[in-house]
What does this fold into?
Amino acid sequence: MVPKPDSTATPGLSTATAMQFDILTIFPQMFAPLQMSILGRAQATGLLTVNVHDIRAAARDRHHTVDDAPFGGGAGMVFKPEVIWQALAAVLDTDAGDEETPPALPDPHPPVIYLSPTGEVLTQQLASELAREPRLVLICGHYEGIDERLREHVVDREISIGDYVLTGGELAAMVLVDAVARLQPGVLAAASPLDESHSDGLLEYPHYTRPATWRGLGVPPVLMSGHHAQIARWRHEQRLLRTLRHRADLLGRAPLSDRDRTFLRTAGWDETTNRFAQKGTGDAD
Ligand code: ADE
It folds into this structure.
């Protein structure tokens, strides 16, 4: 792996450094949405580089064949190892070697990630870990996936975005790019993502904006009180309640104070099973 340059070396200067993604796909057009909104702006300002590479360009035959039938029979097709390896070697600017030599990635090299439903599941913690890398290479699979020898010899990490099966790795790659890129310093214009959902094991508190009464519906009075300590406490309690009601499984890993635990038990938390055992009295949905 390649260490990220020390962006804090010069006190007083911006701490933002650019992050680069290289995506290998047979459907480059699918990545157009990454040009929009926050990630589009991050690319325009040089905080983020997303290079999309067409795997077919690495296929040497007249029809640009990228896949073949599986040995042993069965449904579906498998990405051919040589095509993916040639595409990857070109992206990493390394010699693919002769056809008798097993593939070898240069040392060091950016993590090579294969998006697949059989990978480790992407979490906020994994996104933060990946955000520390200066560059990631993503391979999007299709059909029955890639030849197993690629998994064994060139893929560093296999990542799934959840326990369901997509038609290909492209949407998963976009999810990963979004989750990781937004953690780069400077990519989000305003607040740091520190108190958002999953940043510390709890879900986010509820938000309200003007008007104070909308179609007869009000806003929790504490938010209009101007009392910062009470607002902070209310928000923290709402985070606890929301996590209890929507994702009680997260409470087992969340850093909870004794006071949090007492509050949650009163709201219906069964600490031994991490379940919401009874209806509490809090305001969160
Ligand atoms: N490709 C197909 N399904 C996927 C998933 N759940 N995560 C990542 N890549 C995939």
